[in-house]
Amino acid sequence: MAERAGSGAVAAETSVVPGVGKRRRGWVLAGLAVVLGGVLGFHRLVPNWPGRLGSLIESLLPWGGVLVVVLLVVALVRRSAVALVALLLPVGVWVDTFGGLLLPGEEGGGRELVVVQHNVSDENRDPAGTARALADSGADLVALEELVDPQLAAYEKALAADYPHHVVRGTVGLWSKHPLSGEQVVDIKPRSIEEGWSRGLRAVVRSPYGDVAAYVAHLPSVRVGVGGLASQRRDESAALLGRAIAGESVEPVILLGDLNGVVEDRGLRPLTSQLAFAESGFAFSFPAAFPLARIDQVMARSAAVGHIRTLPATGSDHLPVAARVALE
């Protein structure tokens, strides 16, 4: 009798344990949802050390939506009401931050320029084909980076008919359907890089709607390693470019470039603090084989950047991006 009673007590005890485990897992999921929502909503508070942790998180911020979906699936499988309620936080923050990018862009108006930005890659084996694909976009302005010999001659030849005006400085160039003037180098070289590095230019576009200051830039690359995100050079170059644009006297201003960073990345704050960027469209541009982030940017001042989109792949490891810029 005693033995049977003891067995019953053990059975009763074990029958409660699974329920307790489910509740605990529900609270764990809820905690993860709250943390994710906090990171999405307050990523600026994440310190940038060690290893530029803040910038690294911000570079991947849009993909927080995938984590939300994963937590949602687990919560549904576990039938955890508390986790589902907690998930309202990251869902709301993600929609507030990135939901607008899912909306279609507004119809184009009269005072606008169509622009294309593309890092063509210095290893591109088909520069002529790449140039023809970009010309087919019908853009008013085409900005290119990683222009090197002998590919440069191929771009100049293939784009000449559609873009009679162009300027190249260092490894960056701007092709335009409208006349250009005031072409000059913009010095964005970090102090630690040797001489001979030139990746910035500025020109005034004589558009049908008035003068527009156009900047083309290619900021230094960043690397992710054991020590975190190596972006010191990129950040320094962004600060130099931001200073140049802040002193620009011609309005509007359009910046086209491979900035090696997403607009949420605090390292690009010298630019995003004074320039508007795309109101809709994710346009992940790198790497071309499996795009994870848009590091090719179109920004503007005294103008609005509408829907941004990627164009079909070329011979580059980046995808081209195209946008309509409405001038004020």
Could you please describe the fold and organization of this structure?
This protein is an alpha+beta fold and 328 residues long. 35% of the residues lie in helices and 24% in strands. The chain is built from 9 helices and 13 strands. It has helices at 2-41, 53-59, 64-78, 81-86, 88-98, 127-135, 151-159, 232-246, 269-272, and strands spanning 112-119, 141-145, 165-169, 172-176, 180-185, 200-207, 210-218, 223-225, 228-230, 253-258, 296-301, 303-310, 321-327. Strands 3-4-2-1-13-12 form a 6-stranded mixed sheet, with no helix packed on it. Strands 5-6-7-10-11 form a 5-stranded mixed sheet, with no helix packed on it. It has a two-stranded antiparallel sheet with strand order 8-9. Strand 6 and strand 7 (210-218) form a beta hairpin. The longest helix has 40 residues, at 2-41. Mean pLDDT is 92; it is low at 9-16.
SSE blueprint:
Layout: H1 2-41, H2 53-59, H3 64-78, H4 81-86, H5 88-98, E1 112-119, H6 127-135, E2 141-145, H7 151-159, E3 165-169, E4 172-176, E5 180-185, E6 200-207, E7 210-218, E8 223-225, E9 228-230, H8 232-246, E10 253-258, H9 269-272, E11 296-301, E12 303-310, E13 321-327
Parallel strand pairs: 1-2, 7-10
Antiparallel strand pairs: 1-13, 2-4, 3-4, 5-6, 6-7, 8-9, 10-11, 12-13
